[in-house]
Amino acid sequence: MHQNVQYKTAAVLFGGIGGESAGLLRSQAEYGGKVYRFKLLCSIDSDPVACKNHDLITGEQTAVVMDLFRRWQYVAWHGHEPPEDWREVTPWDIWVAFGYQVPFFLFTSPPCKGLSGLLPNEKAESDKYQALNFLTVSGLELALQACEEYGGSVPAIIQLENVPRINTRGKPLLKQIKKLLKKYGYAVSIRADHNLGEIGGLGQNRVRFLILARHEAQIPNFVYYPEKKPMRTIGDIIGPLPAPGDTVAGGPLHRLPKLQWKTWMRLALIPAGGDWRDLNKVDYENLRVIHEPRRGAYEVADWDETSRAVTSTAGPGRSNGVTAVSDPRLQIGSDGKTNLLRVQSADSPGVCVTGATGPSQGAACVSDPKLQERASRHPAAYRIVSADEVAPCVTGTRLGSGAIAVADPRVNTKLHPDSYGVQDWNESAKTIRSANRIMQAAGSISDPRIADRPGRYTDKFRMQAAGEPAGTVTGVTDVQSGAQLVADPCIKSTPRADTMGVQGWVQTAKTVTGSMDVHAGAAAVADPRPAPADNESGVWMIIAQDGTWHRPLTTYELAMLQSFPRHLPDGRPFQLEGCSDAKAREYIGNAVPCKAAEQMGNVILTAAAQAEAGEFFALSWDPVWVAPEEKQQPALIH
Question: What is the DSSP letter of 475?
Fold first, then answer.
């Protein structure tokens, strides 16, 4: 007891980066004029990097690096004998880590790789993963032995968390665990349908397997189930966060991963809520990717107006600052040559031959039809033939010269459901897994915050044909808001020279005028730079057909969906130290959501307070999680 706060001790096995620990430290219950909270004795894990980040997140120095493998488990998992300085952990080591006291609450979250449905069945049944799975039993045995042997008691409440597939893949292990807990006098609840998203009010569905064991001698009363909370959407969680890629406000984990160009294309084609299977429905022949530069590209400043800001990226083709000016000091008369940079057609009469020596001075150019693009290329180069059609003639050439290829239907790639999945902003997120790459899980989102002018009328800049009925006449006066235009055939006008002009990449540009756009001058260029190669990695913003940016979730956003705090105790944005981004995602995916741990800790503290007050029965609308077991009285039937 300290300042009217009654502390209940807690210890965590396989604590990872501290999702459970952070939640327990926020748990609180008020009962009988007292406030009940948890005091964390330790969090044990074999990974020193995870332990370092555990203390970074919780703000307490309670992580203990300890390998709970037995020797046979170590050999089976690593494939070799342990080093000479390695030894098996004993109950005394656990007792020392517990601070020489029996914790009131013991939480264990053993590794679940071998029990997860993401692992093929053959691997799951191997000796390596069976050794890993046995930590569910051996870790609990060590803790109970330490408490009974050195403390003369056992924890009042024990909780074990794992994946739901443990019900089938780990059935023999569960029998051992239940038998072990019964031996020490626990009433046990075993269920695989706990949605931590509903318990913690998260923005993701996270169905987990939980064992809750109540020591009947210490806690003879009910333990009630946490109140279910309404689920939140992904947008509710990540909407208030800094923009993706802002590593100053969001920390280093908020950078967008660099994906291959073809992966960005796939994400843009998958509708919100869909996955890779929707790519089969794409009408790819009628789609293309276009580049839309921001305001400022090729902008010509007015001589009589204040200039825009000068930025470090100023340049004629860029869009961040002023780059050109309409200079009135050089006047070009209307009698200038009309055939500058002119390209003549080969089937038309030539223009007058002058004494000019270059195309920019009047010397003519010709579109020569005798030069064809790769005239020697066969028409069947790189041709793909369908498996259900007749093949063309077989030649002796290579694939790039006419040899055919076939779309073989016998080999189909069977990806996991949700591969390349794009989640909807207004829906709860799917479970965050430790293998949360976009090729393996629904790790992307349809982000509506970057949209193509939402609310734009459909008739903006609409051009009507003179021979068709007019659209509805509205009260707007601006063509940008819906006022109509008409292609009037009454006025025949000849465009000026250079209208819709396309300039060559290797030529000097023509004069930039004050009305420089494609309708009034040579304001276009034949850009030879190719689109990114399929396997080129980077960050590109491709606006999908629904007007949103389909992008991968950042590691920081995944941590927020797991309800980790936005900032560490030292004030920095949430981050993990000493590991790669891929490893950080694994740590986050393996963690218990903090808010779910907090809510479960609240009901455990309430049960502890009721037991301490001697109130073993109470009326409640809440469902019972672990009720006292009814003892059957024998009766003589005659």
Answer: S
Beta-ladder partners of 445: 423, 551
Distance CA 321, CA 309 (A): 6
Amino acid identity for residue 95 in this structure: W
What single-letter amino acid sits at 45? D
DSSP-derived letter for residue 429 is: B
- The boundaries of the domain holding residue 119 are 5-238+575-626
Residue 126 lies in a domain: yes
Strand extents, DSSP E, 109-268: 157-162, 186-195, 207-215, 223-224, 259-260
Instruction: Find the radius of gyration of the CA atoms of the chain.
Output: 35
Question: Coil, strand, or helix at residue 85?
Answer: coil
Residue type for position 301 = A
Confidence of residue 475 (pLDDT cuts 50, 70, 90): low
Asked if residue 146 belongs to a domain, the reply is yes
CA distances from 9 to 42, 95, 231, 573 (A): 10, 14, 30, 29
Give the whole-angstrom CA distance, residue 550 versus residue 544.
7
Inform me whether the pLDDT recorded for 397 exceeds 70.
Answer: no
Within-domain flag for 371: no
Q: Under a CB-based contact definition with an 8 Å cutoff, are residues 442 and 421 in contact?
A: yes
The chain-wide mean pLDDT, for the chain, equals: 85
Distance CA 74, CA 35 (A): 43
Query: Per residue in 570-583, pLDDT tens?
Result: 999 999 999 999 99
Q: Please state the domain count of the chain.
A: 1
DSSP 583: H
Residue type, 249: A
In the chain the first and final C-alpha atoms are separated, in Å, by 57
Q: What is the dihedral of CA 292, 294, 300, 302, to 10 degrees?
A: 140
Per the CB < 8 A criterion, the answer to whether 184 and 218 are in contact is no
Q: Flag whether pLDDT at 207 surpasses 80.
A: yes
Alpha carbons within 13 A on the beta-carbon side of 487: 8
Q: Considering the chain, what percentage of its residues have pLDDT values greater than 90?
A: 48
Q: Classify each residue of 233-261 as buried b or exposed e, where b means 16 or more C-beta atoms within 10 Å of its C-beta.
A: bbbebbeebbebeebeebbbbbbbbebeb
Q: How far is CA 431 from CA 70, 290, 424, in A?
A: 32, 34, 14
pLDDT band at 369 (very low <50, low <70, confident <90, very high): confident
Beta-bridged to residue 44, according to DSSP, are 13, 64
What CATH number is attached to the domain comprising 71? 3.40.50.150
User: Residue 555 has which token pair?
Assistant: 């590691």
Local structure of residue 127 (DSSP, 8 states): H
Crossing angle for the helix pair 581-590 and 48-58, nearest 10 degrees? 70
Residue 454 clears pLDDT 60, i.e. is over it: no
How many Å apart are CA 489 and CA 552, to the nearest integer? 50
Partners of 215 in the beta sheet? Answer: 186
Residues 6+ apart with CB under 8 A from 166: 112, 115, 136, 173, 174, 192, 209
Q: Tell me if 615 is assigned to some domain.
A: yes
Tens digit of pLDDT for each residue in 599-612? Answer: 999 999 999 999 99
Question: What are the pLDDT digits (tens) for 175-200?
Answer: 999 999 999 999 999 999 999 999 99
Q: What is the pTM for the complete model shown?
A: 0.73
Which residues, other chains included, contact 231 with Cβ-Cβ below 8 Å and sequence gap of 6+? Answer: 197, 198, 201, 202, 203, 205, 428
Question: How do 444-447 and 549-552 pair as beta strands?
Answer: antiparallel
